[in-house]
Batch of 2 targets.
Target 1
Amino acid sequence: MSHIALQCSECAAKHTADMATLHCSECGGALDVAYNSRTQDRHSATMPNPLHSPDDAVTLGEGGAPAVSLRNLGGHLGVQRLYAKLESMNPTGSFKDRGTAVMMSVAKELGVSEVVEDSSGNAGASVAAYAARAGIRAHIFAPASAPAAKLGQIAVYGAATHLIDGDRQAVTDAAIDFAARNALVYASHNLSPYFIEGTKTFAYEIVERFGANLPRNIVIPVGNGSLFIGAHRGFSELRRVGRVSDIPRLHAAQARAVMPIAAAFEGARKPATSAGGTVAGGIAVANPPRMRQALRVLRDTGGSAVAVDESDILRWHSLLAEREGIFVEPTSAAAFAGVEALVKNGVIRRSESVLVAATGFGLKDAIPQRI
Ligand SMILES: Cc1ncc(COP(=O)(O)O)c(C=O)c1O
Ligand SMILES: [Zn+2]
């Protein structure tokens, strides 16, 4: 991996690229991939890739999710151009496959034979699938309360599932402890620089699809921010090489029950979490390790972080299915509730275009009382 290094997102210190280093040795910051020389990917002359031999990539055909126009709900909001990018059409049903494909390709290239991952469900299912394809053994740590469909999906790929009682942080702690005790690679999608590198293709595809007429606003449901931060990296790269002049405003949607990024963005002394929990399990992350990076993306692009109520998440979950035929999981519906809030408070003007990441498929997290 000599063509890349891992660079600290906070102090810019460089580290050797491997699978074991997840934090800066100088300041503890999260790491990003830095290219020592500009490499070229077979898809595009502007697309640096952490792999030495992209032809050996572990892939299931991820990416290429269509961006469809939502005329009915655009009319409902009074927004003329509203789009959903259907990330639920990825091979395991969520955007995570973009990041997993690169992370597991690097793992294979480095000869890793066994990985540990913790997840609210979707990243676990994604890692389990790509690990199966790569011939790598996967240990997936997930909350015992995770949706049954996600747990079933993890199991069907043959991963070892470790169910943990307690909150999301308890799951992370258990995974780190297990990896350390067994001297295994902790392939954390929350921290892995390679995972973030994979999610950049979300931005590349938007530029390919919309050209000079990019959506003015992009709204993403954010927990750890892997899609949010990766999208920004993708747009920034394309700006650096002159493919785009302006980057869309990137807005983060969170559930009011777990809103560390929205609380920090508002700068208020609001509690970042509240009792009661959320149906948006994918974004219920109380201490995102890349929080400072996510806040910089907001500042850099003129985006906002918005917190939405449970009733609004559920209402948009239904509206999407009933008015547009789009069945997403509640976590994804939070981003659409976020659009409504941002339009209401005037951050997004009705004359502006909006694209929403429909991040995960509905059958993964069915709401029991509605079935
Ligand atoms: C469907 C869905 N959307 C959004 C997210 C948030 O992704 P991130 O934690 O990388 O911000 C997740 C994470 O699990 C998810 O499963
Ligand atoms: Zn550092």
Target 2
Amino acid sequence: MVDKNSPVIEVKDLCKTYFMPGGMSQSVLKNVSFAVNHGEFVAIMGHSGSGKSTLMNILGCLDRSTSGVYKLVGQAVSDKTDSDLAHIRGQKIGFVFQNFNLLMKRTIADNVSLPLIYQGVSEKERYKRAVQMLERVQLTGYEDRLPTQISGGMQQRVAIARALINNPEIIFADEPTGNLDSKTSDEIMHLFTDLNKQGITIVLVTHEDDVADYAKRMIKIDDGCKVYDGPRADYGKDKK
Ligand SMILES: Nc1ncnc2c1ncn2[C@@H]1O[C@H](COP(=O)(O)OP(=O)(O)OP(=O)(O)O)[C@@H](O)[C@H]1O
Ligand SMILES: [Mg+2]
């Protein structure tokens, strides 16, 4: 059984430096530490270039830190090989990106069930699971359409269905509403709120205050440093 009070994510003194050709380097994350417990809903905010996507890519095991410790569901990620990391990603993590990242020439059902191909799941079973996931995001009946035949908000819901197909512990979303209008953003945020109520931990990056308001907790990054970590509702209270 999952211990609801145990961290799903623990980072300690996380640093990331990008090394460029010609000997240049840029320190982008500086001693960032925090933990996220099972079932939390966290918004990561900060100015453009502050290091949010860099942090998300490390948390999502798409990249590695330069130093520091990252434990995902109690396991130290830094000790793992790339193929271990790919396995962890497949088992524990769902991703949602700003630009949806759908395959435009494949049907919606194919897009949703894509992660199952790597697990050797049969075509019939993949379709069945895609239908179930599309129901969770209120897109029943759209299985056989192409992404070009649905709206942007619907495309993002397809991406969320794809993120759900492996039954992940956690969903990372980097600016999931960045390409959507405010009404559609609200619909997507309601969907994330429902998924969070079902027990999925959600960590999302956003620039928008309205979007961050759906989260219970906020972490603010400024120039690679964590400068706020606490209830979203309390952020900025001392300045008012
Ligand atoms: N692969 C990379 N190689 C070198 N520098 C990088 C790389 N990725 C990001 N950076 C640099 O790291 C800094 C932080 O980038 P990052 O994408 O994490 O910011 P961000 O907070 O997500 O910004 P935005 O809000 O614009 O998405 C930027 O100065 C960026 O140029
Ligand atoms: Mg970014």
